[in-house]
Write a structure and sequence with these properties.
heterodimer, A: 207 residues, mainly alpha, Fumarate Reductase Iron-sulfur Protein, Chain B, domain 2, B: 299 residues, alpha/beta, Glutathione S-transferase Yfyf (Class Pi), Chain A, domain 2, Rossmann fold, four-stranded parallel β-sheet, 10% strand, binds iron/sulfur cluster
């Protein structure tokens, strides 16, 4: 178990709602949910959510910490914002789902190999290197996330697509050797480091 | 001086050799025709889209967008920011609003920005290019400049999610927005106002991480376009465009369908209708050629 997870269990003994309110993006909204179910009916990948948003909100209030934080459900959110424009209580549901996913990641509770969690991390690391996304390396990293063997297979399956994209000048082999980026990479990285420190300090305040 | 001037946030996918370079090119052409001047934000960075959240978390993510707004406020003074990518627009506008609502986050974002020698005032409006067309330029003006009406082409206007929600275009409904249909009509083509999958999600970033689940939705979007007799699909969103166009082969293989429908941008429609060449309209950027548009462009 990660140290942060241990600390948070200690800290919020039996009050998962409070833990969510304090540590999850937009978590203070959870208590406003009136359990109407509209959001759950709005998720485009609805049938793949073991616990749709309405249920997640109920589980948070019922203190089902493990079930929520180790769930694969919030990783099914496509950021379509259907729920947000429909919710009668105007909960920022999309952000709460993102926030729960982020929090679960910080605590080391994401189900192993969860593809969207993996992709999100590859995306972030890719972008942070030069301040802009390198789509070619992003694609390659994604294919090779499970190692060399399956990666080659995946890459071959998508080979025709890659060739067509290059022909249409919508993918460039030059990206592999550098490619697009910003000038002030070091400023950007310092800025993000600072933002991360400030956010961490916020979480520590509850010590 | 141009009739309209904006500070421009193109986004990562709208760069040379990137997946929506055809959007970038056709937007340039369209803006030349409409006398819209776009001043790129110097040294803009990626906003981390709707997928950066997991590693980015709240403050770092907001700070990424804050940097772009701050750079725009410093270099493109008094100009509204315009984005062409739905996710860029959404992330930037969301960041601006969150930092307005929450003073302590605003203070922290500025503390982080100071590390890069920047300062955010956060007074700049953030627009989508569709808003520029609908609200600033207007349908009448768009229609007035049409030289070659796109007659005889039936087009399913696919708005998708993030151009439409949560902000959308002022005065439009979230469930059935009609501005894209109006734009299609303005350039002389036939629209399909009750296209059922107009605002259906295509999976967004999950098209990469959950391809099977997403392709099932994409299949529905294409099927409904065919059912309505569409010749092509038009969209304002770079990820929608890519997702709906490039996986048609894979979907055909999996579902035994015969999809081969072009997916174009509104900016390509306008460029062609305004008499510009196929290359100015970036029609060479299609994986599935939009032959009807190519023919009109040739005439
Ligand atoms: S739509 Fe809003 S109020 Fe209804 S269940 Fe979902 S979050 Fe709760
Ligand atoms: S934004 Fe996420 S939670 Fe909301 S409806 Fe879409 S998939 Fe569901
Ligand atoms: S949303 Fe996409 S295109 Fe826009 S900046 Fe972010 S990664 Fe780049
Ligand atoms: S339709 Fe797809 S690509 Fe377009 S905004 Fe929605 S999720 Fe993103």
């Amino acid at each position: 178990m990660s140290d942060l997870n241990k600390r948070m269990i200690e800290e919020y003994r039996n009050d998962f709602l409070k833990e969510v309110e304090a540590n999850v993006e937009e978590g203070e909204w959870v208590k406003m949910c009136m359990q109407c179910g509209v959001c759950s009916g709005s998720c485009p990948l609805g049938k793949h959510w073991a616990h749709p948003p309405q249920e997640i909100f109920m589980m948070i209030r019922a203190g089902k910490r493990d079930e929520v934080l180790t769930s694969d459900s919030m990783w099914m959110c496509t950021s379509c914002y259907n729920c947000i424009v429909r919710c009668p209580r105007q909960l920022p549901i999309t952000h709460i789902m993102h926030g729960l996913a982020t929090y679960s990641k910080k605590l080391g509770l994401v189900p192993k190999g969860q593809p969207t969690a993996t992709f999100a991390e590859i995306f972030w690391n890719n972008m942070m290197k030069k301040g802009r996304v390198n789509e070619l390396k992003l694609g390659l990293a994604l294919y090779f996330k499970d190692g060399f063997g399956p990666g080659i297979k995946e890459a071959l399956r998508n080979k025709d697509l890659g060739t067509k994209m290059m022909k249409a000048k919508r993918m460039s082999p030059a990206e592999f050797f550098g490619g697009h980026g910003i000038k002030d990479v070091s400023g950007l990285q310092k800025m993000i480091k600072k933002a991360q420190e400030l956010e961490e300090a916020r979480m520590k305040k509850f010590d | 001086m141009a009739k309209y001037t904006y500070s421009y946030y193109p986004g990562c996918s709208s760069q040379k050799g990137a997946s929506s370079s055809n959007l970038m090119k056709s937007v340039q052409t369209m803006c030349e025709e409409l006398d819209v001047e776009l001043n790129e934000i110097p040294d803009w960075n990626c906003c981390s889209a709707s997928i950066g959240y997991a590693s980015g978390s709240e403050l770092p993510r907001l700070t990424l967008s804050a940097r772009n707004i701050a750079l725009s406020e410093e270099h493109n003074k008094e100009q509204e920011i315009v984005a062409t990518c739905a996710a860029c627009w959404l992330a930037t506008r969301e960041a601006a609003e969150r930092l307005k609502e929450d003073e302590s986050l605003f203070a922290e974002a500025n503390q982080a920005l100071a590390e890069a020698g920047l300062k955010l005032n956060n007074t700049t409006p953030i627009k989508h290019m569709a808003e520029v067309l609908v609200e600033d330029v207007g349908f009448d003006e768009i229609q007035a400049g049409v030289k070659k009406p796109l007659e005889g082409i039936k087009i399913a206007g696919y708005v998708g999610c993030q151009t439409n929600r949560p902000f959308g275009i002022h005065g439009e409904s979230f469930e059935n927005p009609v501005y894209l249909d109006k734009m299609i009509e303005a350039v002389g083509a036939e629209s399909i106002p009750d296209y059922e999958k107009k605002v259906q999600c295509c999976g967004g970033a999950l098209a990469f991480s959950e391809p099977d689940k997403s392709q099932e939705m994409i299949k529905g979007i294409i099927e409904a376009a065919y059912d309505n007799g569409a010749d092509m699909i038009a969209t304002p969103c770079p990820l929608c465009q890519a997702n709906v166009e490039i996986y048609q082969d894979q979907i055909n293989e999996k579902y035994n369908t015969k999809f081969n429908i072009p997916v174009v941008y509104y900016s390509q429609l306008i460029s062609v209708a305004y008499g510009r060449s196929a290359s100015d309209a970036a029609l060479d950027g299609q994986l599935i050629p939009a032959k009807q548009l190519e023919e009109i462009a040739k005439k």
